[in-house]
Amino acid sequence: MKDLYEKFAYDYDEFGAIEEYLGDEKRFFEEVFQQYKVSNVLDCACGTGQHLLMLLQSGFHVAGSDYSKSMIEVAKRNLDGYGYKPKLKQCDFRYLEKVFDETYDAVICLTNSLPHLHSDEDLVTALISMRKRIREGGILVLSSGTTHATLQYPPIEVVVNRQDFSRVFVKEHDEQFQTIHIVDLFHDEHHVESNQYDIKYRLLLDEDYKKLLQEAGYKKINIYGDYSQNPYDKNSMKLIIVAEV
Ligand SMILES: C[S@@+](CC[C@H](N)C(=O)[O-])C[C@H]1O[C@@H](n2cnc3c(N)ncnc32)[C@H](O)[C@@H]1O
């Protein structure tokens, strides 16, 4: 499997620092983790470590893994910068047992990470692998910005617009897949560069997640449409799942 983030990892955080955009998300995790008595967490698509940092700052014990070696390298660097050294491993989330033998109170897989897998078989394999790393009574948390409502949005979205850097998403989708063409433009007098990354996601909405999670043996599946835990509906801007083991 190709690492789509091999180069992108080093610019990924141009989205902005976690402190700037994760306010609601931090409160959500603190509330949900308190409810399920979560103390240790595995982020199995940790990317540049932004959620690991958020959770460490909230006092949780964390470990992280990601398929992309570059993402792991950037996560290590980011967390080192804050004086944190959690366990970080390169690992495909379909096969977590190859790297982790312990179980966690929660496994998280956030921001459109699971939909990198395209077949039902791979998706169920990944969800089972995650379930096996969660203790009885623990939870899996998934999140995505792809919803019934966001699919209706105009296909071009300027997600970062600074004086020195812009990031534009150009999105297209059919019934089964969504492709996001990410265009990065560096445009100050010292740095002029453009890069494009094309990421193809399996289109997964509430009912798809429910079906896959049931097939993978999860007991109760809660689906929220925002970080205030309002139920998901056709107007939701987020799709957040808390599945119980
Ligand atoms: C859109 S990024 C999200 C990263 C991070 N969770 C965040 O919220 O910023 C998707 C991440 O999923 C990872 N990923 C994709 N397929 C994976 C797989 N099979 N196993 C583990 N990680 C995977 C990518 O390497 C990338 O870091």
Automatic annotation (TrEMBL):
Cited InterPro entries: Gly/Sar_N_MeTrfase (IPR014369), Methyltransf_25 (IPR041698), SAM-dependent_MTases_sf (IPR029063)
Alphabetic keyword roster: Methyltransferase, S-adenosyl-L-methionine, Transferase, Ubiquinone
Short name of one Pfam family: Methyltransf_25
Keyword Transferase: yes
Keyword S-adenosyl-L-methionine: yes
Taxonomic superkingdom: Bacteria
Protein name listed in UniProt: Ubiquinone/menaquinone biosynthesis C-methylase UbiE
Domain Methyltransferase: 41-138
